[in-house]
Design a protein that fits this description.
Blueprint (H helix, E strand, L loop, with lengths): L23 E12 L2 E12 L3 E6 L5 H9 L6 E6 L2 E2 L5 H4 L2 E4 L10 H11 L4 H14 L15 H13 L6 E4 L7 H18 L3 E5 L2 H7 L2 E6 L2 E6 L1 H6 L4 H8 L2 E10 L3 E6 L5 E5 L8 E6 L4 E4 L6 E11 L2 E8 L4 E8 L9 E6 L5 E4 L5
Helix pairs in contact: 3-4, 3-5
The site of adenosine-5'-triphosphate has 14 residues, from strand 2 and helix 1.
């Protein structure tokens, strides 16, 4: 994550009104940012609806934080536009955008109590004292922090401090809350717990959230839609299910599900299916129908959890189980197929798991087979 200076919460929603939580919350069109020769973000476009939880997911350096910082106003785009609630904010100062922020570093004011920290954005906005007390109390209760209002941040655990930061971002109901790896500094157990809490609060209050993470599981747990980023480009912006079941690129298939890849060419089509002759095994793999010309060299991707082990001769190839590891409710198996240079990874329910040394036929439902034209052939 990039480093930032201490951020003071926003001063005023531009026209003083609270935005409504319906319709289009945020629209980004052809946003681009370069640093010298590095294209950090390349023509990113997306529309986010009010009440949506959207995650930017990608490896380090893929452009997630830069995109978020352009939306926040801390980083100026070379070109493109950012509209929030129908208002063009592309060149507006961060404090005039009225957005909420939660960063990995909690950025709480150490000399203020929890209540004063949470009250801060309301105090800046000149909200009457009674109203502040009521809203701070309500917000602390939502985050499970009632009773902590009088403490200083140093008297809280990391998880509690991050909850305070979240309260401070949502106390004035900004139209969009931006979160950059907010759970990155916490241990796994606390992260899992806070993910559930953040999601529950977001749903209860109908918040619009843009969240940055490099953790696939976190993105899948939290998001209505995920923008998978790579080298400054949005590879696919879709629901977790669509990304998993209908990835548009081999990168997305691999990044979200660690897919198995097999190479081959399109042999023929039927009304419903595309039949692929596999290079490594000579077997015939049936996929749902894809619009690819006969003869096209392809890569077929199937998630490990969507492959099954049957009797030898079943399915699209037969091989030998090389490893079978019991992991709770699942068995992870490695099946060596073809002339030996392909290892298929399977995840099957533990009760029906194959054992090492066994010969198995590997099958896949055609619906679960995704085909991509092999880029080397283009
Ligand atoms: N201030 C800067 N000056 C020069 N290059 C930068 C700057 N900020 C980001 N970059 C470059 O832009 C690209 C995108 O960086 P960005 O921080 O947006 O990635 P990220 O996906 O958020 O990564 P991480 O998960 O590591 O935070 C990277 O190649 C990065 O080195």
């Amino acid at each position: 994550m990039a480093e930032f200076d201490v951020v003071t919460p926003s001063v005023k929603v531009a026209d003083g009104t609270l935005p409504t939580a319906t319709g289009k919350a945020l629209s980004v069109v052809a946003l681009r940012k370069t640093y010298g020769d590095v294209v950090a973000v390349d023509e990113a476009s997306m529309e986010i609806a009010a009440g949506e939880f959207v995650t930017f997911l990608g490896a380090s350096g893929s452009g997630k934080t830069t995109t978020l910082m352009m939306i926040a106003g801390f980083c100026e785009p070379d070109s493109g536009t950012i509209t929030v609630g129908g208002r063009d904010m592309t060149r507006l100062a961060p404090q005039k955008r009225g957005l909420g922020f939660v960063f990995q570093q909690y950025l709480l004011f150490p000399h203020m109590t929890v209540s004063e920290n949470v009250a801060f954005p309301l105090t800046l906005r000149g909200v009457p004292k009674d109203e502040i007390r009521r809203r701070v109390g309500e917000t602390l209760e939502i985050a499970g922090l009632s009773g902590f209002g009088g403490r200083k941040p140093r008297e809280l655990s990391g998880g509690q401090q991050q909850r305070v930061a979240l309260c401070r971002a949502l106390v004035y109901r900004p139209p969009v809350i931006l979160m950059d790896e907010p759970l990155g500094a916490l241990d796994k157990k606390l992260r899992d717990q806070l993910q559930v809490e953040i999601k529950a609060i977001q749903q209860e209050l109908g918040l619009t959230v843009i969240y940055v993470t490099h953790d696939q599981e976190e993105a899948l747990v939290l998001s209505d839609r995920i923008a998978v980023m790579r080298n400054g480009l949005i590879e696919q912006f879709d629901t977790p299910r669509e990304l998993f079941e209908r990835p548009r690129t081999p990168f997305v298939a691999d990044f979200l599900g660690a897919a198995n890849f097999l190479s081959g060419h399109v042999e023929k089509h039927t009304d419903e299916h595309t039949l692929v002759r596999l290079d490594e095994t000579g077997g015939l793999l049936k996929a749902r129908r894809h619009e690819l010309a006969t003869g096209t060299q392809i890569k077929a991707a199937v998630q490990p959890g969507r492959l099954r082990a049957g009797a030898p001769g079943d399915g699209f190839c037969t091989g030998t189980v090389e490893t079978a590891t019991y992991v709770g409710t699942l068995v992870r198996a490695g099946v060596r197929v073809g002339s030996g240079d392909v290892l298929l990874r399977l995840e099957v329910p533990a009760g029906r798991g194959p054992v090492a040394g066994e010969r198995v036929g590997v099958t896949a439902d055609p619906e679960d087979v995704n085909l991509f034209a092999d880029e080397r052939e283009r």
